[in-house]
Each structure stands twice: as structure tokens, then as C-alpha cells.
Request: fold
Amino acid sequence: MTSAWRSGSTEPLYFELAWTAARPAPVGLRTTGAVVGARRTIECDITLLDSPDHRLLRSGIVLAHRVVDGLGEWYMDAPEWSPWLPVARSVAIDAAGELPQDFTCLARPFLRGATLCPVAALSWERTETGLEAPDSTKLALIRDDRIAVVQSGVTTSRVRELTINPRRGLTDGQREWLTNRILALGAVPVTRHPSVLRRLGPGAGALTDYPRPHLHDGAGVQTWVSAQLAGRLRDVIEVDVAARCQGMDLGPTETTRTEPRVLPESPDRTDLVGMGYDPMTTPAPSIHDGNHGSIRPLQKAIRALSQSLDAMSGLLDHTWVERAQNLCAQVLDLDPHHISIHHVSREYYQLLEEITAAARSPRLTVDPDQPARPTMKRMLRESVAEAVAKCDDLEDSQGWSAAEAAVRHAAAVAEILDTGRADKVAKRLRPVVKEMVPTRRRVGDVVDVCEMSVQEAFEAGREVERASAALSAAQQSFRDAWPQHRRKILKAIHG
Reply:
């Protein structure tokens, strides 16, 4: 017998009941110890909106159109992503009848380019019956829920759930009478009712697309790489939605829940709000423009992701790493002065799709079960040795370019490996990376003077001359400083 059955407990009691079974407490029922009081019924029809493969539900987000007792509304609940996404937010349908632009915007990074469409229909009927003592003291509230789920035109689930919420005045005798009456109807006691979302099938209950990484000592390469990618992906999504929600009226977002709800907790519709504005009636400015939601924090997170990809490139398929880093580069090339989070390019969503898939199943080129930490330590030694060798041989522009790439790769490996020695190496490599930036020859150093006037060509030539002098000075400065950097790096890696 569970703790909920103890004397004086107000813990709810849960039962599953046959769809056609009689009501456990018909109106007008009277005994010497209890009277069935007032009853009310709530009806709700729900259309869940998601991608065909349930990307929102897998991310812990419910987006739906609900009709509660004849009143239509849009609804979003994403407790896991609070405070950036709404918690149980209901929005009255406006004159246009369109999904609120704020909801559409907030769902976009989770959809990653997939089409938003109806994926399931739920019909829900709740009958609430009060149980009272002869002196009108409230003894219990009985909730009788009938829930039907329809997917692709087929009823996939039809359940009836019974919940008894005892009050302090409910005696042991009254409790026993009530539970015996329910059990006599064929009800089965359960520990807890599964959420309605879990009744949608394996697609809705699958693992999240954005897990919080958990690593243990001795983890294999596959587990370690997956955790690194998942962590970077989670960082990107969090800064994305933090920028998107700027200026939105999300309402109260504090919650202790982690799983979203789809059914209304109350028939009272006083919580409806007009999120955003009705574009047909209100000429208000939109926050979905180029002035709200800076992409600078997003670009910082993308840069960190790109560095992690560089660090793990020795473990992953080279073609895939190149494609992912190219997508990173296209996002980093966006001008934050003219592009807001609401207008990022489609390459960004392609990048999210690539990293989401890779976090689940990375394309490794090594044994996935070999220990990750020793493997990365070996890669750190090898990458540092290559960087030192490249910086020792700086003869032409290709040599400088190869040296910078090698130094950046070694620094990335050192940054991603959380050991004391790696921290020391990373500390020694950071100034080298910084000093190599001005040694890079720019594409603009080559100027076409064919269509310039004599004066313009002269000025262009002088500009190229100054750039060439600055480049030579930077390269010479690096050569002068390199021997000292070299000693410090080798001392850090070898101890």
C-alpha cells in the first residue's frame, strides 16, 4: 500500500478505468458519511503542431491549437527551456487566425528547417465531482478523464484516467468506501498516470535532440565526442532562444516542471493573452526585424563549436568536418549590424541539423570504444609537435598559412582536453595564435588597376605598399618572438 493511502494523507490516488465503466460517484449518491456534490464537465479538442518526426516534442516543447469549451486558443509550453520559452502560455486567436509570430519564431531553431504541421489530434473530457460530508465539508475531488488520441486519421489511444484528490477531512472509513466503490468498477490502481504526450507513441517519447552532456572517467571516443558536440549544440540553442525572446511577452516562466503539458489545468480562460499583435488591426512595429536579437552571442557560440570541430577533426570523417566548418564560417560571416536572429541564413539551420545528427551518432574514423582521454592526450602531443615544426619553417605565404592552421588546431585540442597539462599548453598557445593573425596575407593585397585613373592607381599602390610593409613587420616580429614561445610550449607539453 502506497504512502498515498495512509491515514490523513492528501496525496492523490490514481486509477485506470474501462472507457465504458459507470461513473464512480453518480450525482445524488448519499450515504451516512458522504454526499456527492456539484459536478462540472470540461471539454477540450487539441491539435498538436510539430514536424512529422516530432522535433518539438523531443525537445520538450508543446505547440498546439486548443478549443476549450468552445473557445479557441494557441498554446505553447516549454518548461525545460524556461525562461527563454513560455510556460503554459495561452494566446487568444486573433482576427487573422494565424499562429502567433512569436511562437513561430521560438520554434524555428528546434524545427531546423522541418515543416510545421498537425501531427496528432486529442479529444479530452474531464468530469470533476466533489465529495462532501453531510455538513458540507469538502472531502475529495474526483477527476474522471477520457482521452482519445488520433494520428493519421486512426485512433491510436483511448484511455480513461481517474484521480482522487483527498482533502484533510476525509476519514479512513470514507476513503475505504470511495476506493472500494472505484475498485468494484474494475479500476486498476497505478502509481502515476503517464503524460498525454507519452501516449503519442515512440516518436514523442524519444531521446531529446538537445541532451545535457554527462561524461565519466574512462568514456570511449564515441561517448566523449557525442558529449562534446551535444554540449556545444546546447550552448548554441540557448544563446539563440535568449536572443529570439527579447521583447516578447512570455508571461511568468518560473516552474519546477521539466515535462510539458498539453491539457488545461483549469477551465477558467482568464489567462489568455494577446501575445504580439494582430497585424490586421494593429499597425504596431514588429520585434521580428533587424533591430531585435543580436547575433553576436550566437556567433561566439558558433565560433566555439567550430574550434571544437577542429579539435576533434582527427577523430571524425574529414569530409563531414569540412562541411560543418564551412557552415560555421557562413554564419560567422554574417554582418551583426544588418542581420538579426530573426533573419539568419538557412545555412545556420543546416548546421543545427548536421550537429544534431552527429551528436547522436558521430562519424568516427577511429575505434569508437577506445578510451577518449588517452587518445586526446596523444593527439595533443602530435598536434603540438606539428605546430612547432610548421612554425620552424616559415619560408613563403603557404608556410605561414599552414603554420597558423597548425597552431590553431593545437590550441583547439588543448582547450577541449580538461587536464592540467593541456591547460598549460593552451595558455602558451593563445598568444601565438593572436600574434599570427597580422601575419596573414589578405586577398585584397592584390589590386587590379586596369580600370583606375592614374591617381587612383597610385593611391592603391601606396596602400598595397603600406600593407606589405605591415605584413613584413608582423612576420619579422613573430620570428623574433618564436624561439621564446617555442621553449615555453615544449616545456608545457613535456613538463
Observations:
- The chain has three domains: 3-200, 212-253+287-369, 372-494.
- The first helix runs from residue 55 to 58.
- The first strand starts at residue 13 and ends at 16.
